[in-house]
Design goal:
Layout: H1 7-12, E1 18-21, E2 34-37, E3 53-56, E4 65-68, E5 71-75, H2 80-86, H3 99-105, H4 110-113, H5 119-125, H6 131-138, E6 142-146, E7 151-155, H7 156-159, E8 160-162, E9 165-166, E10 173-180, H8 181-184, E11 187-193, E12 203-209, E13 215-220, E14 227-231, H9 237-246, H10 258-276
Parallel strand pairs: 1-3, 2-3
Antiparallel strand pairs: 4-5, 5-10, 6-7, 6-10, 8-9, 11-12, 12-13, 13-14
Bound molecules: flavin-adenine dinucleotide (FAD).
The site of flavin-adenine dinucleotide has 33 residues, from strand 2, helix 4, helix 5 and strand 10.
């Protein structure tokens, strides 16, 4: 169903003069001042100076979720709530689907925005604490990128280039995320920590063991860009701790010091290593 902007919120977005619904790929071509809107939960949450028009992506009619032998394709417009519901109906051997609710719960005030916020909107907003970034990176998600004619793809771990920045070029949109079946069949775990009980994540650490024994650990929210650490087999405690500690990009902001983020990431990774052992 097309997104209908909440009335009160629109009043606050004083620069916007146009709203149109994209139904074809050509409709996604943006005029100067236009931006795409998905759930609108972030776009409507603060002033958007310079934005004069919204182009609603939810009219594209993409299927939320496509299951195939290769894995799962998540439309950028799929809501977080729909993805959470899928975790209970996923194929039985997609054991890593159990991680989806944990990732969604890593969103601050998640219950208020799950039903509207989209997977693509969260990833394109690209906050370091982006919960769908954590999930996609944990499961080797691949970003499908569209412009008017060309398609390209890249790992979500590379799609997020900084706190709030992505690899999208002008005119490009995120079409969806493909999650490969080997990652969905892994045993996976996620841990989150925040300074306040319901605060924005200070660190999110994930780990998974693939059917071939490969181990993949990720750190998000604690580092400016996603950190992915791969091991051919199970790392020992010292090797994992060293890899997590030496990862680049731990940062300080009002939600935590860099040293604290580094330290808790080491602890959470070790908890996951033991759980998966
Ligand atoms: C109460 C509350 C709590 C929040 N907590 C968190 C949190 O803990 N962690 C966190 O990371 N974020 C948080 N956010 C911000 C959050 O990232 C977004 O609200 C939400 O995930 C964005 O999804 P959306 O579909 O509503 O995106 P929108 O608001 O519609 O769009 C977000 C941005 O992405 C762009 N965009 C959307 N879809 C696409 C696409 N397919 N291709 C290209 N560009 C696109 C838009 O142009 C816009 O710049 C919170 C927001 C609120 C209101």
């Amino acid at each position: 169903m097309p997104h209908i902007p909440p009335r009160g919120a629109v009043i606050d977005i004083t620069t916007v003069r146009s709203f149109r619904i994209a139904r074809t790929r050509a409709d996604l071509a943006l005029a100067p001042g236009e931006v795409v809107i998905a759930g609108g939960t972030w776009l409507m949450s603060e002033p958007q100076p310079g934005v004069t028009g919204f182009v609603d992506m939810t009219g594209m009619g993409w299927p939320d979720l496509e299951v195939s032998p290769e894995g799962l394709r998540i439309a950028a417009t799929c809501t977080i709530a729909r993805l959470v519901a899928f975790s209970a109906e996923a194929p039985a051997d997609w054991t890593a689907a159990a991680m989806i609710p944990d990732a969604a719960n890593a969103l601050l005030a998640s219950f208020k925005i799950w039903n509207t916020a989209t997977v693509g909107g969260n990833i394109c907003r690209a906050f370091a604490a982006g919960a769908m970034v954590s999930l996609a990176v944990a499961l080797d998600g691949v970003a499908e990128i569209w412009d008017g004619a060309v398609e390209r793809e890249m790992p979500v771990a590379e799609f997020v280039t900084g706190n709030g920045t992505t690899a999208l070029a002008a005119g490009e949109v995120l079409r969806g995320i493909r999650v490969p079946v080997h990652a969905l069949r892994s045993r996976a775990a996620l841990r989150k920590i925040a300074l306040a009980e319901h605060g924005r994540s200070g660190a999110v650490v994930t780990g998974r063991v693939d059917p071939d024994g490969a181990h993949v650990f990720t750190v998000t929210a604690a580092t400016w860009t996603p950190t992915v650490l791969r091991f051919a087999g199970a790392p020992d405690a010292a090797a994992l701790a060293a890899a997590v500690r030496e990862a680049p990009g731990y940062y300080t902001d009002p939600l935590g010091w860099a040293d604290w983020r580094r330290g808790v990431s080491v602890v959470l990774a070790e908890q996951i290593r033991r759980e998966l052992a």
